[in-house]
Design brief:
This protein is α/β, with parallel strands linked by helices and 449 residues long. It contains eleven helices and 24 strands. 25% of the residues lie in helices and 27% in strands. Helix 1 runs parallel beside helix 7.
Amino acid sequence: MKAVDVLVVGGSATGLVAATTAKSNYPEKSVAVIRKEEKVMIPCGIPYIFNTVGTSNNNILPDEGLVKLGVEIIVDEVLEINGKAKTCTTKNGLEIAYDKLILGTGSLPSVPRWLKGADLENVFTIPKNKDYLDQLQQKLQTMKKIVVVGAGFIGVEVSDELNKAGKEVTLVEILPHALGATFDEEFAAEAEALLIQRGVKLRTNIGIEEILGDKKVAQVKLNNGELLDADAVILSLGYQPNTELAKKMGLELNAFGFIKADQYRRTSMPDVFAAGDCAEKIDFSTGKISKVMLASTACSEARTAGLNLYELNTFATFRGTVGIYSTCIGDTAFGVAGLIEKTAAAEGFKIVVGSFTGVDRHPGKIPDAHKETVKLIVSKHSGVVLGGEVMGGKGAGELINAIGIAVQNHMTINDLLMMQIGTQPLLTASPAAFPLIKAAEVAAKALKK
């Protein structure tokens, strides 16, 4: 029987960060990662293999960091884990004993059981599986009409990429707006306009009833009876936690099927930790169970697990999921952190909103200058920043990260007003009209009313 001090199950972002953190902080311990894939995909980069990066081979998580630290990589599949005996068995017949276990088994694409025709040939999902995605990419080369179902981040990005590759893409979303579950209406509407302008056919406020065809996909029937011709259908209807191993070993799961884990990522079983898409998350602002699945969140949780394996590090707790998303349609980036306006109101927060639109360069005639809008959602009673949205150029991704830090640290509007920032004409907006600070000014005025 093989023995290791720390065994990490799962090789995506969670597994990579958990293993490197564990080995870096406990260098005397042996650490091994066991994963099914020879090569692991960068999760957030998957949509871009369909055009921008050209092939999945250009979207691989590197192993060099693990190898240099001395982390062992085992390509195999764990079939069973005995939590009491602290052992696991693999598909290739390997038995591994461990002292500490970190589960990072990720998530799987959701396919509704009620969806008739989902089993037809040329109906696809977007899993984090290189072999599957390579086959999908190869099959799509001979196809022209693609229907993508679900206009969340993956659906929007895949649609835009396939459109750039010359496909006729129709994106179907049951909500009133694409990205409507994540952004307030004015941001989602702008994203929709960009998609349409770029050539994606968009059908919102309508769902699909079934997928039609004789063995292969031929059409998609919408719930108003309309038929869309299709050579292929890509289902982008969210993901579900991959917790089959956890169930079998007797770990407690929450009502949504995630592995229960505390702020140190400890599970219901001693010496077993869970992080990433498979693990429970608590919303930072509401205290409710969150269904957020993000690589960035997974990495934060993985670091927390890796730091707290052998002693609790009180500075390394995971106090809740902020939820920080971003995407890009053409030259326009969209970002969101924490609560949006409609969610905050629905949760019962008394809020004020501050919005400002400026330019992300100074002067605005610099060639890559882009209009930049910042919207802040603020508690009326405390002035604490609950969330924010950004729309602008490529710098919007880092700007929304800054807003995420403000949310995570319970910063107030006054804190933002007193921000000391560095600016440079080719890199940032003017210090005299920095959109984040100007949005805080608008919110501050609203607080005084």
